[in-house]
Amino acid sequence: RGEYRTAIQRVEPVLTMFREENQLLHFVQTCSAFTITLGGAGEYARALALITEGIALSESIGDKVWRARMWNTRGWILGEFGAQEAADEANRRCVEVAGQLGPQRIASELIGNAEANLADVALALGDLPSAESHLAAVAAILGDRRNEWMTWRYGMHYHLSSAELALARGDLGRARSHIETCQVTAERTRSRRYLIRASRLLGECHVAAGNLVEAERLLAAAVRDAKTLGNPPQIWHAGLAFGRILHDLGRRDEAITTWREALDIVRAVAQAVPEDLRASLLGATCSMTLQELTA
Fold first, then answer.
1. Is 211 left (phi over 0), alpha (psi -120 to 50) or beta?
2. In the chain, how many H helices and how many E strands?
3. Tens digit of pLDDT for each residue in 106-126?
4. How far is Cα 162 from Cα 39, in angstroms, rounded to an integer?
5. CA dihedral 125, 129, 130, 134 (to 10 degrees)
6. C-beta atoms surrounding 295 within 10 Å
7. 252-271 and 285-294 helices, crossing angle to 10°
8. Rounded Cα–Cα distance for residues 19 and 278 (Å)
9. Which residues contact 267 (CB under 8 A, 6 or more apart)?
10. What are the pLDDT digits (tens) for 247-269?
């Protein structure tokens, strides 16, 4: 539900207890969940450090499930930063390890999540055929009735990434269909990050269709909700899109203010991460665009 701070406060003492009591399997399992929360909250340096520790520990005790998930989480975070090559590698490591789990039902979920992340990497690089291939792999997993574990969760990811692919190809009808399917699940499960991304993409559909009034409403809501949630990538992506619609409506000063606020979040996050990730984030397409628009 995006209640990151509450989750951090509740889980952190448990993680510390497992570490102190040397309960290694419980530690890596909790570490896996905790790093997802830290990533959502924008505490990236801390999340990546714990992932490195957790992967090494899970390998030493022979665990594969949580090791695969932490590779997946690492790939997701690195993709958010624009470190696409490293993100690609991490997600492929997840697929590799998950493939060793055999018929365990969690394996399909791990692979589905990683393939959705790989589709996002391809979309960021403008490689639409590769994105389509990765999304087809997710669709095959979702379409197999034997795979029920967490399909609602990575199914939302699949639909929004598919919507981005459709938007890139100018297929607004298909994009809207995927967005609406995601929204049904996201509203039922109160998945706020997906609701925000869905609103942004639906707003971009309206921009492409020339319906600027509805686009403004949706993108303004996306910016507001992203700020409330506190997930940095949703803030800067929504801010970029909302600023563009304001600019198109002739409200240039408001557009620049919106872009600067989004860029401030990018720079604040960049200052809190290692130098290599800082360079990736500041060199990512969204960041570069915000810098150019506010120069």
1. beta
2. 15, 0
3. 889 999 999 999 999 999 999
4. 23
5. 120
6. 5
7. 130
8. 30
9. 282
10. 999 999 999 999 999 999 999 99
